[in-house]
Design a protein that fits this description.
disordered N terminus, Ribosomal Protein S5, domain 2, 20% strand, RNA-binding, alpha+beta, four-stranded mixed beta sheet
Amino acid sequence: MASMKKATTLKLNYEFRRVYSKGSSGVSPFFVVYARPNRSCRNRLGVTVSTKLGKAVVRNRIRRRLREVYRLAQGSMKQGYDVVLVGRRRALAAPYSELERAFRRTCETLELWEP
RNA sequence: CGAGUAAGACAGACAGUCGCGCGGUCGGGGCGAAAGGCUCGGUCGUGAGGAAAGUCCGGGCUCCACAGGGCAAGAAUAACGGGUAACGCCCGCCGAGAGCGAUCUCAGGAAAAGUGCAACAGAAAUAGACUGCCCCGCUUGUCGGGGUGAUGGUGGAAAGGUGCGGUAAGAGCGCACCCGACGGCGUGGAAGCGUCCGUCGCUGUAAACUCUAUUCGGAGCAACACCGGUAUGGGAGCAAACAGGCUUGCCCGGCCGCUCCCGGGGUGGCUGGAUCGCCGCGGCAACGCGGCGGCUAGAUAGAUGACUGUCAAAUACAGAACCCGGCUUACAGUUUUGCUCGCACC
RNA sequence: AGCGGGUUUGUGUAAUGGUAGCACACCGGACUCUGACUCCGUUUGUGAGGGUUCGAAUCCUUCACCCGCUG
């Protein structure tokens, strides 16, 4: 199981911008997934939660749930990708199992899921 | 028991599995002469609030200016006394208002320094005279001169109020009671209060200008200090690695996205402080003094999450970003104490 | 994080503390065989709460929302 330390996260604006413009995307009611191959052998995650979704507490909660979904699913994903999760409002109140199922289905359409 | 009022407390807990920030410690890897720091993992400790929010006030801290303070301008505040580092905050008290009451609310100085404004209505808006009432004059009538503010209606406000006397009619013109202002006396630390005495009867508005008193230099941790000395750094737009440019003309090989703008990066500052808890003393209180004990976040794209179980239920408002003291606003539910009113019983 | 500005019918915009106005739009009517144009008329209102004042869009205050600036 890979860790969630700093080296495995996207930070800078140009990294996000590159994933948005060059990567492939998949949509679910709770979030949007962008993915793009990078040159390393491990995955990197970036999470975007816009100010439009709510105040600080709401944004923090959406971001933490999305990271938890990614963390638990990471072991069964293909490696070597930059992944960006964009939160949507319904990720706040949805049951956690729904989020997990939606993430798995979206990754399968993007061919990120390790068979 | 019900209704109310004031002051507080808590802000899900526990267990298990996985996971995150910071600090300590142990071990592995590799750099280095060493000191040291980098990376990976284990383990232990610790990890958001009563409002962390809004950014409405006041400070600390840092830099700039002045280094002697003052004036002007501008801004803020406003009964009185106290508390505080300071405040526009808090406490006490006075006055006014609301409530049966406990209690609550109030930008609550000066309108007799001056200026301004008061629409419409109304005769009249801070001063004159529509209808009335009364007197006088004669040309006797839709007349002229004078007195009056008691009457009518208007207005938020009409020249202290009520009654009696008085008068041609009237009027604080006089008297009694009441209301208010100022001065004296008494009382209180002061604002103030008073069945006392004297003088007087003055529209409202200063959250209109203004006057009086007091306070205020400016910017803000993205402040500031240190390290280091251009790494093809950061931002925006465009393009998409198959193209194009540079390296001597060509090939091989090597290097590089293009244009514009900016000047960057790291570390410290960073959390031990007008600190918190308990006890004692002083004070009506806010608060102060002393003793003992504790150290309870410090991130830098930004750490608290997920699942399961139990507790009746628990997703209330809401997330630290240099730090404090207040104010304001949001808030499910649980709970403590004092007091008031009503009903019943003893 | 620190600052600055704003909010008036559906839209754009006026208004000394004293009846909230104008243009376009909507709706209704007239004109027309019908529609457009044109003419006439009606409705729709000061972001929310509290205060000062006789009286508040305006003055004061507490909030909400929107826009902009620095980085």
